[in-house]
Design brief:
Blueprint lengths: L9 E2 L2 E2 L11 E8 L2 H11 L23 H10 L5 E9 L8 E14 L2 E11 L5 E10 L24
Antiparallel strand pairs: 1-2, 3-5, 4-7, 5-6, 6-7
Length: about 170
C-alpha cells in the first residue's frame, strides 16, 4: 500500500496529468527558439563554464555551450502535459554549432512510457533544427512522474517547479 504517502494531484498550473493520459506517439508540438547573447551568458553562469569558445575575440562568431539545449524540450512537454517528477535520464547528441542570432525549430514527441518498481516513467525526444532544416541537436529524456509509488493516492496541491520560458 501507500504507507501514508500521497502523490500530488494539482499545482499552480492545475491538475497534473496522469500516467494513463500520456499517449506514446503524441507530438509535443514545435517552437521557435531564438539564440541570444543573454541566453548564452545565462547558461555559462548556470554551469560556471567560461570556455573561450563561448566568449570569443572580437569578430569571431559566438558559439553556445551544448547544454543550452536542455530547457526547450522541457518547455515542449510542459505545454502538452502538466507533469513534474524526477529527471532520471538524459541523452543528448550535438550535431552542429548553435550560434547567436540563430532561430531553431524545436519539436518533440512522447516515445515511451513504462512502469518499473511501482513507479511511472515517461520518455520523450526532441530535435532542434536550424533555419535550413539541418539537425543541430537530438535529445531523449526520461522522467519518473512521482518518487512515491503509483499505488499511493493522489491528493493535495504541490508547488509548480516549472521554469517559465519567458523567464529564460
Amino acid at each position: 500500500m501507500s504507507n501514508g504517502k500521497a502523490r500530488v494531484m494539482e499545482d499552480a498550473k492545475g491538475r497534473r496529468a496522469t500516467y494513463e493520459e500520456i499517449t506514446v506517439g503524441q507530438s509535443l508540438g514545435e517552437m521557435d527558439w531564438a539564440i541570444t547573447d543573454d541566453l548564452i551568458d545565462l547558461q555559462c553562469q548556470l554551469d560556471q563554464d567560461f570556455d573561450p569558445l563561448f566568449f570569443p575575440s572580437a569578430g569571431q562568431p559566438r558559439i553556445a555551450p551544448p547544454q543550452i539545449t536542455y530547457r526547450p524540450p522541457r518547455w515542449l512537454i510542459s505545454r502538452a502535459y502538466n507533469v513534474r517528477g524526477l529527471f532520471v535520464g538524459w541523452e543528448m547528441e550535438s550535431l552542429g554549432e548553435i550560434r547567436v542570432g540563430m532561430t531553431l525549430k524545436v519539436s518533440g514527441a512522447i516515445v515511451d512510457k513504462y512502469i518499473r518498481k511501482e513507479r511511472e516513467y515517461i520518455v520523450y525526444e526532441a530535435v532542434g533544427r536550424d533555419e535550413q532544416g539541418n539537425v543541430l541537436f537530438r535529445t531523449r529524456r526520461t522522467h519518473v512522474l512521482d518518487f512515491v509509488e503509483r499505488t499511493a493516492p493522489r491528493s493535495g496541491a504541490g508547488i509548480d517547479s516549472g521554469i517559465k520560458p519567458e523567464k529564460i
